[in-house]
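Translate sequence into structure tokens.
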Amino acid sequence: MPEITALQTARLDLAQTLNYDTAALKEAKEFTGDDVFKTRLLIQQYSRVYSETEIVARTIKAVQNSVEVLSVINTEGE
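Result follows.
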């Protein structure tokens, strides 16, 4: 039996974090694509969003926060 990949593990973790809400997962997938780092970052940011209570809105806010973090990370050292 093939072993589960890092990407599959990250996707399962994301689905669990988003309570298997398919609309939220679609929003998340648009941001993460097949990037494990972005998926892990989004999970972490999702847990930090307190201003939204609805899952899709909270996911969108977490994506926005993740984009901001990535812009800082990617510009360090320039």
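Note: Residues 9-75 form one domain.
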